[in-house]
Amino acid sequence: MKTAICYFSATGNSYDIACRLQKKMSDADLFNIADMRIRDLNDYVKIGIVCPVYWLGPPNIVKRFIHRLRRFKDKYYFAILTFARMPYSAEYLLQLEFQKAGLDLHYHYCLKMPESYFVGFMPTPQKNQQFLFAKADEAVDHTYPDIAAALILETPKSLLNMIEKAQKRHEKLAAVLPQFAQKYDVHKNCNGCGICARVCPVNNIEIKEHLPVFGDQCEGCMACFHRCPQNAIHYGKKTLRKGQYINPTIDIAQLDKQRLTEPVDSND
Ligand SMILES: Cc1cc2nc3c(=O)[nH]c(=O)nc-3n(C[C@H](O)[C@H](O)[C@H](O)COP(=O)(O)O)c2cc1C
Ligand code: SF4
Ligand code: SF4
To answer: What is the pTM of this model?
Structure first.
């Protein structure tokens, strides 16, 4: 029973959970949604997604990924969403994306991790981070047997109305995410190192004349902000004096490999 764990992660929280889950399973392989080929999933019986919640729902890149899965009708699908404050109904909105692709999301779980959205919120204090990482271990211990047993969760009918409303709210917010990076300022201490361009999961940054230039295909993931060694990328005044966040329990360099080998939307 081979399992594919497909992750999308900007600051490492979702990658951390994907790794923890993989360690529990004897038969699981990891794939980075940002640069994988769909045909590599042919032989997997179970396919899981581990990704963050962005603005009350799943990231846009993950929605496009689910659409590309539509050829695999007979797999067992599961998802773990990481969030920092409230997942709202993100797991059900993910389920809706599966339905749109003619698929079922059989199992889902939401897991609290440190904050990455520094535009709107303060960083999670260090001691709270340690608490969350310890809790994450417990959560993976809890979900792993469910996934191993291919548990199927039913969506309570009483939630359908609420899910429809949440979907409308999320769609409005997610529609402006591609322009998110246009609001970044690059401060004078930028040294043109190009790391921001290298870590952007969707190649939305070009270095021109030693400065990053942001395109309009942004995921809003904030990887460029958090990974800049100079802390030179800011979102107006909203991110000033907040520092940066990278999940300390993983090797973040693993995410540097996020280069699109082929377009995210390709029908490979
Ligand atoms: C653009 C953006 C939007 C976010 N929206 C939410 C949200 O609606 N609710 C929430 O609880 N956390 C939200 N977060 C926080 C992330 O979901 C959380 O920190 C997640 O664990 C980050 O995962 P990663 O490290 O794998 O990128 C948001 C983060 C970003 C960057
Ligand atoms: S990572 Fe920071 S210092 Fe390097 S090019 Fe980008 S903005 Fe400039
Ligand atoms: S430009 Fe920055 S925020 Fe936008 S997708 Fe790339 S790394 Fe993420």
So the answer is: 0.96
